[in-house]
Amino acid sequence: MLANTRLTLATASLGFLSTTAQVIALREILVAFTGNELTVATTLALWLLSVAAGCFVLRRILDLTNPHSVGFLSIMAGFAAVLQVILIRLLHPVAAAPGELLSPAMMALISLAGVMPCAVALGGLFVGLVSLAGHSGARAPVARTYGIEAIGSALAGMVLSVFVLEKGNAFIAVGLAGLLSTLAGVLLFRSGNHHTAATSWAASRWMRTTLPLAALAFFGGVMVWSGNIELATRQFQWGDLEVVESADSRHGSIVVTRRGTTFDFFQSGALAHTVPDPKSAEETVHIPLLYHPGPERILIIGGAGSGVVSEVARHQMVRALYIVELDPAVLEITGRYAPEGWIDNSSIEAHAIYGDGRAHIAGTGEAYDVVIINVGVPTSLQVNRYYTVEFFRQVRRVLKPRGILAFTIPSGGAFISPELGSLAASMARGASEVFTHVEVLPGEVIHLLASQELDLRKRSETMIETLIGRELNTAYVNEYRLWERLVPLERARMDSLITEYGSVSANTDSKPVSASFAIERWARHFTSGRLLSSLTERVTLRSSAAFIVFGALVVSGVIILVTRSSVMALPGALMVYSVGVTTMFTQILIVLCFQVVSGYMYGRIAALIASFMLGMGLASTLAGLRDISRNPRLLLAFQVVLVALPLLVVAAFKALSGGALAHTIVPEGVFIALALLAGGAGGAVFAGGSNIISMAHPEIADAGAVAYSVDLLGAAGAGFAAGLLAIPSLGLAGSAYAVSVANIILLVPLLIGWRIHRGSLPR
Q: Looking at residues 127-151, what average pLDDT do you find?
């Protein structure tokens, strides 16, 4: 009989490896697809589908009642976790050059190919551990395994957040997880009966000795040479660009590439700035400062390494420059490659402020003449949060009465695409809701400026005169190019464009236009993008809720038919499906809301997932042991919590996103607590549902596969729908309402099914 201690350690190791591989996969996908957070939802969905496939496929290929087979799978899962990182980095440049737009279908294929090997192995490993737990006489083996795995996952999240990801890289993380997974495999090998299974390949001497030693040497080597492997794989990922440095911080991945004497700096896969790039620096600084008659105090958010300091210093009336940079590592690394005077300039009083730009705006007591947003195009939630109506209101508070808010939007020159036109119109509309005067200046780069009291249209007529009077001697923002922008025909064309897309909604924290912007770009270039765009146009709160309910009935029914389970397992399957949908969506919602509020999801994914898994592990284990399926009131209470979860997250998001508390430790504590609650409610209901399935199914391993697969399929469906359809169409809050409505509807068949099941239980 398998020793309970060894089985517990092996199960916890599964959780540690699972969360490590999942967190690293999410971070790698973020980099591969230029920081678009909605890829998190899609990647999680593909991950869970692959795990569900592993539950069924490996159950039929391997003898998962044999500890040696399960031990072999544990070691192979560790190898697959390392392979996952390499695949994600190598597949993207094969499909497209760095910076080239990929279709939604290609993004999904690359993600699937990257995560599938590890996720499939982990799915089979879960079923194997459930089977071993059942044969060892453990009570409620599905819930027990699920709970212990979740506790191991929570431990991984804490270790990653506090130690590994703060000081190491992806290969150190997966190397450590692989070592633990190999030790778990050794424990399982030692638990088997070698005499009765001497003819089994899984019990051979090679399997029990040579393979573990080779695996330990491999994972140890991965950790020791992690820096070399990191740089080599990044080099392949960036194609023809020469990678000279790669580093991770809590705010994102930083990669430096070289083109002759020019260095490009990428943050989470997106180009942050180039050194030297005087044209971009001049565009960012001089246009807004020329609009202001006497700029003395300037605030620039982002782009501290882009050369803006030396450009601001050319305006002699400027007395002080404050520049906010989220990640100190970016400025530190830029300093190693920038020419002298690029970052610092002794002729101006410059103050570097490290932290979140929204936090500085919310907490500062200073008043500025010009605030320049220099964080890039709002194609991600991390960037989009600087272009919302809520943030514009915060900026207005710190501007002087005649102060100017300024930012840029990329332009195609003479031709502006529909998606760029709608983006510009949305930004202009949002600024108009906050400021009296809004000006959109055409050109190679579109400048959007807003002021409460300064008449920007009149000021534009004096820009050339101001340029000459200040003796700036600029190379790119010169008299000729300003005249080109101020030609009445060009101004009228831009005004017409804004009017044409005037029906576009303003960009807000709860309904980010950046999500729609990405889908519009896909729709213009790819067939799969056009399909996605047509679907998003049809998404409503009612249709989303109906889709969830329909999916629950269909998926639960099909799984039960395919596995030849008793119809008495249906209420349990419905419960588990609702858990999968709600907890996955809530987990995505927590991550995205935290990103909007605080701006550094990259470094906190592990902590948020750890909290979620800790709650799920504790609740699933306790509820499984107490057999919550026999307590209708308690089960109903947890179902009600599931209904309320998305609404609680939205309420916390709205309470924190606009106030001073948004930029303290409070949001992190609140969202971690919500993740813990979501995991706890989900784990309890999963335990109740899986117990019902177990009692209706004669085979323990198959019952575990049914419960785990229904849960994962529900979660996968929620991931796809949330990331690609619901959030781009309904926004964060609207999507949350749809999930809660669906859960309310699902309570009806759940209660009916539970009463039928209750009547069949022995008294």
A: 79
